[in-house]
Amino acid sequence: MTGTLRTAGFDGETLEIIAFRLHDQEFCVKTTTIREIRGWAPSTPIPHSPPEVIGVMNLRGTVIPIIDLAHKLGMKSTVANERSAIVVAEVHNMVIGLVVDRVSDILTVQGSQVQPVPEVTASFDKSFAEGIIANDAGMICFLNLSRMFKERDVEELAA
C-alpha cells in the first residue's frame, strides 16, 4: 500500500452516526436509519422464528420484531439487562428493534475518517460493514443495516 490513506467512499460527506456497544466492541449506524432509542423491555417470543429474532414488541400500536444484533453479527447473544437499549430502526420501509448493550454516543464524523474494512480471508463477508472509524477512544465498526437485513429477510420478519 502506498502512503495514501484509503477511505470507504464517504469523502466530502459529514456523517451523523449513533454509536453503541455490543459486548466490548463499538459499532455505529447512520442516524438517518434510526427512529428512536428505547430502554430495554421484554419482548414476546415467536415460535420457530429465526435465531436472531428475540421476539416482538408493541411500539405505539405497531408490532415490531426485536433482533439480537450481537447474534446477527456472529457474536455471543446479548443478555439484556437494565442498561440495555433497543435501537428502533427503519430498514427497507419496515421498523425493527435492535438490542444493544448500551448506546454510547451520537457523533458527527467526516466521511474521510471512514476507512474500508480490510480483507481478512477470501471467505470473509464484509458486506455488513460500511467501514471502520478510528478515533481517540478506539475503533468503531460502521454497520450498513440495509445490507445486513436484505429486503426479503425483512419481509420474512414481518410475516
TrEMBL record:
Coiled-coil positions: none
Ranges for domain CheW-like: 14-154
One Pfam entry name: CheW
Record organism: Sinorhizobium psoraleae
SUPFAM superfamilies xref list: CheW-like
Species lineage: Bacteria, Pseudomonadati, Pseudomonadota, Alphaproteobacteria, Hyphomicrobiales
Gene3D superfamilies in alphabetical order: CheA-289, Domain 4 (2.40.50.180), SH3 Domains (2.30.30.40)
PANTHER family assigned to the protein according to its UniProt record, in alphabetical order: CHEMOTAXIS PROTEIN CHEW, CHEMOTAXIS SENSOR HISTIDINE KINASE-RELATED
Protein name as annotated: Chemotaxis protein CheW
CDD domains on file: CheW
Domain of life: Bacteria
